[in-house]
Automatic annotation (TrEMBL):
GO terms for molecular function: electron transfer activity. The gene is petM. One of its GO terms (cellular component) is plasma membrane-derived thylakoid membrane. This is Cytochrome b6-f complex subunit 7. Pfam families: PetM (PF08041). It comes from the Bacteria. The keyword Thylakoid applies. Component of the cytochrome b6-f complex, which mediates electron transfer between photosystem II (PSII) and photosystem I (PSI), cyclic electron flow around PSI, and state transitions. One of its GO terms (biological process) is photosynthesis. The keyword Lyase does not apply.
Length: 34
């Protein structure tokens, strides 16, 4: 029960961090090309 609650709290943060990381990576790639 507590595991499901923990998942519900952590999962959205994981997606935000993953999206931010991908954004940073794309910026680095674009910056290197220019």
């Amino acid at each position: 029960m507590s595991g499901e609650l923990l998942n519900a709290i952590i999962f959205p943060f994981g997606l935000i961090i993953l999206g931010w990381g991908l954004g940073q990576l794309l910026l680095k790639i674009q910056g290197a090309e220019e």
